[in-house]
Amino acid sequence: MIEIKHLTKTYGDKKAVDDLSLTINDGLIYGFIGHNGAGKTTTIKCLCGILGFDSGTVLIDGVSVADHPLECKKSLAYIPDNPDLYDYMTGIKFLNFIADVFSVPADKRSADIEKYAKLFGLTDDLASPISSYSHGMKQKLAIISALIHDPKLIVLDEPFVGLDPKASFEMKKIMRERCDAGCAIFFSTHVLEVAEKLCDRVAIIKNGKLVIDGDMESVRGEESLEEVFLELENDTLAEK
Amino acid sequence: MLKILVRSQLGQLSAMMFSRDSKFMSGKQGVQKQRSDNKTKRILLYVFLFVMMCISFGSIFSAIFLTLHESGNDKLYFMLTAGLSFFFGIFMSIFTAQKMLYGAKDNEMLLSMPIRPVYILLSRIIALAVLEYISSFMLTLPALIVFITFGSPGALQIILFILSSLVMPLLSLAIVMVLGRVFAAISARAKHKSIVQLIVSLIFLGAYFYIYTNIMSFVETIADNAQQINAAIAFVRPLLRFAEASANGSIVSFLLLVLWCVIPFALVLWWLSHGFIQIVTSERGAVRVKYVKKHVDRKSPLRALLSRELSRFFNMSQYMLNCGLGTLMAVVLSVFLAIKGGELDSAFTGTGVALTTLFPVLLLSFSASMTCTSCVSISLEGNTFWLLRSLPVKTKDVLISKVLMNLVIFAPAVIIGATVTGIAFGMSVAEIVMTMLCAMLAQLMTALFGLLMNLALPKLEWTNSTVVIKQSASVVIALFGSMIGVLAVVIPLTLLLGITLQTVIPAYATLIAVTASALAFAFISAILAAILFTAGARRYNNL
Prior knowledge:
The complex is a heterodimer of chains A (240) and B (543). In chain A, the strands form 2 sheets. In chain A, strands 6-7-8-3-9-10 form a 6-stranded mixed β-sheet, with helices on both faces. In chain A, strands 2-1-4-5 form a 4-stranded antiparallel β-sheet. Chain A is globular, with a radius of gyration of 18 Å. Chain A has helices spanning 40-47, 69-74, 91-101, 106-119, 135-147, 165-180, 192-198, 216-220, 225-239; strands at 2-11, 14-24, 29-34, 55-60, 63-64, 76-79, 153-157, 184-188, 201-206, 209-215. Chain A is an alpha/beta fold. In chain A, helix 3 (91-101) runs parallel beside helix 5. With 543 residues, chain B is an all-alpha fold. Chain B has 21 helices and no strands. In chain B, helix 2 runs parallel beside helix 8 (215-224), helix 6 runs antiparallel to helix 10 and helix 14 packs antiparallel against helix 15 (359-369). The A-B interface holds A 10-13, 45, 48-50, 52, 70-71, 73-74, 78, 80, 84-93, 96-106, 109-110, 114, 123-129, 131-132 and B 26-27, 284-293, 295-301, 303-305, 307-308, 311-312, 315-316, 382-384, 386-387, 389-394, 541-542.
């Protein structure tokens, strides 16, 4: 589904992502792990066509994000770590706006909004302005907006931050269901226990470079994912 | 600590007015020089605008001073100066105060830090005071120059005038802080807070324009009733003390003025600092409306983008007031023109010139130049810009939606204005339609120019939307540039050509003159659109 080949992105003199290559197949939940400033968000933003990049290619279903951004964006949904949404809209207006942009038929959107708003406990608040929402409510709204157009690829940056336990549980369930239906999910997280339980594959990025990429089982071996990650971090400290 | 906070506040203010977003300048050679050049240009622009405002007010003050000086009423001149600068200062900063003091996005972050709340408040007040002093000096500086030029004052009078001008804004600042608090409280409880703010702003603005447009008759009335007015204004002690200090060189009056200004300021500061935490943390979540499922129709992406733009416009009172004022102005002035048009014509009786049929297009085109929502619409995306970038929408559609928004909000005013004036002046259907078309093309030119300016000078990182709307370089350049552009078209092509043609082909003079302006606007718009959809689109994609 997604092929990232030799992706490089620099900010001034700093290489935020350095020659990164990854392949994410359909039907998999792919965890993306790294320390703060490792390049996770930059990679995600390049992959979603939000940020341009210096070199390399990103292909979604064989279509280049750099050359055909619109076509790629039609098949993906992106949820950022800090969902700054349109404060001047109500929740329902925002969802309808997203549905309009993705040309979701009126009946389908109505049914999906009802279903997911109920699932995340947001129904009563849909008529309120987004400016009155808490961080968690905004996160839930962003998640609903990502689900109502049935994307083939869902890219999430720290999706569980701000979610209450129930919403977090529902989110994980939805992620698995979507993958079972053939969708691909690529998400970054610092919650390694969640990644360990949820992901089929995992990639670890350090200082912009990919250091580990493989099946969850083969990456962690006999250890926990947390131990693998900490060993990598300690190796870096020792090198310094 | 206070020093750090003040530096941060002034830095934000300065960045908003003079700088472009640093993220757009990174990684390029010669960035520092370019940044410094741009900053210098923008500072020069603001200085130019300040000087223009001073000249404008200077002409009013010279008329007032010469009239009052002749009748020996210098003191009244100073009272009026103090009064006008006092109200101007309040008008210019009242809503900025509301957002800057009580609605800043970083209030909660700063309150979580080991900083005394009064320091946070003080740092914001100091930044607000800078704006207040700039507004005040726009009046007191020309008033002083007029006084020195025509009044031959002594050194003590000049010194006391300057010192009084430095003290007086403290009083308007105190009132602005209180009114800002009141408006913050009202709008927090109001369901349609942007409408409440808009109405209050329009009341202020209406009063301002009424005074401004009737200034000469006020001067005459003042001259005729100087003694009574003197006595009436003297009740407002700070104005009287300002006048006594400046006109008579009275140090005692100056010291009394200091008390009149400093004591209220200190009291308000004390009051606000004691409730600051409660004030800034009680503004959110006031309105809760229960959702009731309704049927919605599917819109095209372009229509959805347009609805989004309209939604933002009608939910931000400052946006409506600063960028959409021309719409209201077009309606009000058209009605006024329809009523008073006969008087205008009679002024030219015997000259063979009939201006009334030319005026609607002049008025509506000029109003169009004052209606520019696009000049800040990129900046207002702010931290939600990621959404547009991640959605499958064409850059062209995003840009078109921003231009269309401008046209949509102005169109009703054009229809009303052209119809009302057209019927009142007995214009033909063709003339009315062409007047509408010309005004809409002027609006198109303004919207395209505004959007290009915002793409050239975007400001996506901000903590206060009011500051972006009111003080961004793109807004200032777009509004003044559009006004100049519109006048450069309509004065030669509608007014002068129309008057000339009236002696040759009177029956078609208006139609030809208005069509000429419409063609010019269409031509300029076509060029601007070509730039927008090529270089502008590239710029948007690189933001």
